[in-house]
Write a structure and sequence with these properties.
- It contains 13 helices and four strands.
- The chain is an alpha/beta fold.
- It has a four-stranded parallel β-sheet, with helices on both faces.
- The two termini are about 35 Å apart.
- One of its GO terms (cellular component) is mitochondrion.
Length: about 260
Amino acid sequence: MHFVNLDDLCSPHFLVSKMEIVMFCQGNIYRGTGLLQEVVYLVSQGADPDEIGLMNIDEQLPVLEYPQPGLDIIKELTSPRLIKSHLPYRFLPSDLHNGNSKVIYMARNPKDLVVSYYQFHRSLRTMSYRGTFQEFCRRFMNDKLGYGSWFEHVQEFWEHHMDANVLFLKYEDMHKDLATMVEQLVRFLGVSYDKAQLESMVEHCHQLIDQCCNAEALPVGRGRVGLWKDIFTVSMNEKFDLVYKQKMGKCDLTFDFYL
């Protein structure tokens, strides 16, 4: 996969206004990104799931680092722009570091993540991964997959989770307490809903998540919490727990590994 020149993103000529909303999902490069972008679009635009189902949502929310549509096109989009990215915090445009936009970050527990990521790699012709899950998981633990170390990526953003312009979310909370997450998004995005509208929006988000997680094109259960238990062996789980403790031991971020 090709990317834009990172120097161009950090250039003072690439400006991010206070109106922008940039979403980051290292933990969910595929399914989690799709869910987050659709829920954010739903909440920010007051749309409904049927409307989203009829549009190409990826055209509405370009990926910052991808060559298509490219930075020149992104610069020309009307604010407030909704932009996606999987880049580490240190590679973000300087305006984002300075708080000149709203940043929404979603992380997913790494055991479910690596299973879903493995299924994703096997499903794409451009990647056509044919190795075993054990080999793939080993690469994940050794930081040898795309976008680098998940452990570093999530900790970099967690260090900024108290910043006023950052909303740090967890994938599992969409399944555990969606209403609270929608309320967080409403406040963070500065949109206004009365009680009835908020309840309706939560219901729309429930419908959207059910559609995304149960789509026929997806491997069964890829969007659920705790799918790692279906594929991890006892020895793999023990090794993963050891690596996780070594790399995340000094971080107070916690995850739900099953609900």
